[in-house]
Design a protein that fits this description.
Blueprint: H1 3-13, E1 18-24, H2 30-43, E2 47-51, H3 62-73, H4 78-91, E3 96-101, H5 103-109, H6 111-121, E4 125-128, H7 137-145, E5 149-150, E6 153-154, H8 160-167, E7 174-177, H9 193-203, E8 208-211, H10 217-224, E9 229-232, H11 234-240, H12 246-263
Parallel strand pairs: 1-2, 1-9, 2-3, 3-4, 4-5, 6-7, 7-8, 8-9
Helix pairs in contact: 2-4, 2-12, 6-7, 10-12, 11-12
């Protein structure tokens, strides 16, 4: 059983959803983003999405776009992020790690090369935000050859037929987007979310984790009742971006993630 399968199996035994935290690597710089990853794991994150900054992050809302901009201006590169990933995966062999990126960045580095590197340093898979189903084979093949999961995304706008095609060969987990639009906190999640997740779980051979718009513990608790995993990104990055001493923000993010972790437990 691979690491992600073990994580989701363990969470099922504990009657909770896995907590997946997105970290904007290189924000505000590589050293402090590594501290943020360490804090997230200590606070209860089961899986870390290692967000690679990109100059045109079309799927990301204002919070993550701004963090990406800061990271790029401060010199963040994929090579540097892979070095960071090697350090944290070595220190935390039971934590899952997913590289969260856009295809331009991966193409520039080399698809075969990045997959070999990720496998060597203990990262578990890739989530390429802008990779369509019709072109997935070019990354799916090197992922498979190197024992990596290629994490697919399904949104409320995805037809049942296309969702079935997207998830047919899914491993690791399926990322279910809660809302149409970009990442970011929402005041309220859509009422139909539970039904959408239930339908997706029926057809997916892999666990289903839900993200986009998770603002607080109450939202995490609601999602955890129907999904196998809860994904939180912008709400954490927003805390880390507060105009105050970074160590204060770091502690606030740690407390927030602890609250999320407590609320990932399912109701009796």
């Amino acid at each position: 059983m691979d690491k992600l399968s073990k994580i989701f199996a363990s969470c099922r035994q504990q009657e909770r959803a896995a907590l997946i935290i997105f970290c904007s690597c290189g924000f505000p710089d590589l050293e402090r983003s590594e501290q943020a990853i360490e804090a997230a794991i200590e606070a209860g994150a089961d899986i870390i999405e290692l967000g690679v900054p990109f100059s045109d992050p079309m799927a990301d809302g204002a919070v993550i776009r701004q963090a990406s901009g800061v990271a790029l201006r401060n010199g963040a590169t994929l090579a540097g992020i892979l070095d960071l990933a090697a350090r944290v995966s070595h220190k935390h062999p039971e934590t899952g790690f997913i590289l969260f990126s856009y295809m331009n960045v991966l193409f520039n580095y080399g698809l075969d090369r990045v997959c070999r590197k990720l496998s060597a340093i203990g990262v578990d898979g890739i989530l390429a935000v802008d990779l369509p189903l019709e072109e997935a084979a070019e990354l799916e093949l090197p992922c498979r050859d190197n024992g990596l999961h290629l994490i697919p995304l399904v949104s409320p706008a995805t037809s049942p037929q296309r969702a079935a095609a997207i998830t047919a060969r899914a491993t690791g987990f399926v990322y279910s987007v809660n809302v149409c639009g970009v990442t970011g906190v929402r005041e309220e999640l859509p009422a139909e979310m539970a039904a959408q997740l239930a339908e997706l779980k029926k057809i997916s051979p892999a666990p289903v984790a839900a993200g986009f718009g998770v603002t607080d513990g109450a939202a995490a608790r609601r999602i955890s009742q129907v999904a196998d995993g809860v994904i939180v990104g912008s709400a954490v990055v927003k805390i880390l971006a507060r105009e105050q001493d970074f160590q204060v923000s770091l502690e606030e993010s740690r407390q927030f993630i602890r609250e999320l972790a407590r609320n990932c437990r399912r109701c009796p």
